[in-house]
């Protein structure tokens, strides 16, 4: 499995993903022109020299090296809400108190806001069902943090993730059903497609501008506020293990939670290790050659390029901290476009199997990850 920047040749696979992911996956919609523009914008973003985050959008694909098929996608928006408003509801409480009548009542409300304008957003993570395999979802999630760690000037100090909210197999959202009945007579699939395409004028024109008292919502609508789609729970758990937290902001359409973290405190960024590569062939003289059958820690490794970015997983790497050298098989180095002595960065995803020697040592802040894989995150 190799992760690389998306290219125009990936358009058919990206369109298939847009269809497979269904309503609610607002960062990809089944529209040919939209997808072509999304790919071109990503290509331009990777190629552009950047000193501070702007409207760049980075879209990666996970490729099966053996077949060349695209297994999934993952992406980063450098700075959201600049060209098109990024709306959320914020959950808070208001108190109604009459001292004269000795009555006190605290109620929950939802207020529309643009709190996350200018933040970096991780998005568009989708692992196609027929390509589910061990650690593929982890790689799609973690690779964004390796890229951020290597190119911090391209991203904001705060990173957010909008988690997919609750909807059923038919694409019906209980939260939106209530809003549709009272305010916006459009179905869930239509509003998510409009929003995904950047057509958000209807939000300002039709959505309620005053606080929504949640006790006025239907019971099904109230029950899903701040909840994630069942398929998204493993992804949420993974982000929480990275240090992301929900602070009361939810999606306008399905009520799903948005989580946030400070970029430099994300565990996979703080714990990533810059190193120098030693490409190991059969006849290479090495300081510490592991047995051929040895299985070390599972590492996500990436080169340090932007336009030519590559990343993958391996258990066949040996880290020598005293020399700041990561020894990797020569074939793996070639797949990452890494020459001998080139710079790279890695982060540990899982320890070596019990009873086998671990040959790597990573930086601080590593967290044990959930074992369950996932289809999509947000």
TrEMBL record:
The keyword Transferase applies. It is an enzyme of class 2 (transferase). GO terms for biological process: L-arginine catabolic process. Pfam families: AstA. Its EC number is 2.3.1.109. Residues 355-374 are annotated as: Disordered. Residues 360-369 have a biased composition (Polar residues). One of its GO terms (molecular function) is arginine N-succinyltransferase activity. Transmembrane segments: none annotated. Keywords: Acyltransferase, Arginine metabolism, Transferase. This is Arginine N-succinyltransferase. It comes from Marinobacter mobilis.
